[in-house]
Amino acid sequence: MTGSVFDIDLGVVNDSVNLTGFVNPARYGDGVHTDAPLKYYMEPLRSQLYAKVQRIGSERDGKIDYDIAGRLSGNWFTPDSIPLVFGYNTYDPTDVVISVSAGLARTGLYAIAPADPLPRDVSVASGMVRYTLAGSHMGPGSRTGTTVARMLVQMLDDQRIRMEMFSASEAADTFTISAGVFVR
After folding, report:
1. Mean pLDDT over residues 5-22, rounded?
2. Domain residues of the chain, as ranges?
3. Which of 14, 15, 98, 183 has the most CB within a 10 Å radius?
4. What is the CA radius of gyration of the chain?
5. Is the preceding omega at residue 79 within 30 degrees of 0, hence cis?
6. What percent of the chain has pLDDT over 90?
7. Is the pLDDT score of 3 beyond 70?
8. Residue range 33-91, pLDDT digits in tens
């Protein structure tokens, strides 16, 4: 157990790997050379470790680079480099999650409603988009089903978005002065 969760996070920096899914690779330093660590273990330990990975599908190593140029999908940052991520659940890679980091309003990991637009489909042309957010966590049974917040987001251009979070009881029809701007 690490902290209050039952998992451990491993990483490998491999200079021969260059992740291509970051719109602004300079922001990530050695992170662009991130590789899957379990494949470096010798057998039989490698197979024993992969057997413990809880993830739907045959891909066991996961992904960290979800940026899509001109789309909402991926990583965005405040001027102080606090991240806001439109990505996918590590357990179910088809389940969209939004990670709102510490330092932002309503910090947490959220699942979007089934009818909400996928971040990979949201562009400047989409205008203002509203997400209905349910509590989420990584792992089996990750979605609570209960609406806990709403989010408005709009791509201002390919490098900037505006985002604001609201309580579940608020209509979230328009941005207020509390909205923040995030950049790639």
Report:
1. 85
2. 1-65, 66-184
3. 98
4. 17
5. no
6. 70
7. no
8. 999 999 999 999 999 999 998 888 888 898 889 999 999 999 999 999 999 999 998 88
CA atoms of 94 and 109, how far apart (whole Å): 15
DSSP-assigned states of every residue in the chain: -BTTBS-----EE-TT------SSGGGGGGGGGEE-SGGGSPTTHHHHHHHH---SSS--S-------TTSS-EEEE-TT--EEEEEE-SSSTTSEEEEE-TTSTT-EEEEEPTTSPPGGG--GGG-EEEEEEEEE-SSTT-EEEEEEEEEEEEEEETTEEEEEEEETTS---S--TT-EEEE-
How many whole angstroms separate alpha carbon 174 and alpha carbon 18? Answer: 40
Pairing state of beta strands 143-157 and 128-136?
antiparallel
- 31 Cβ neighbours under 8 A, 6+ residues apart: 19, 22, 64
Q: Which amino acid is at 40?
A: Y
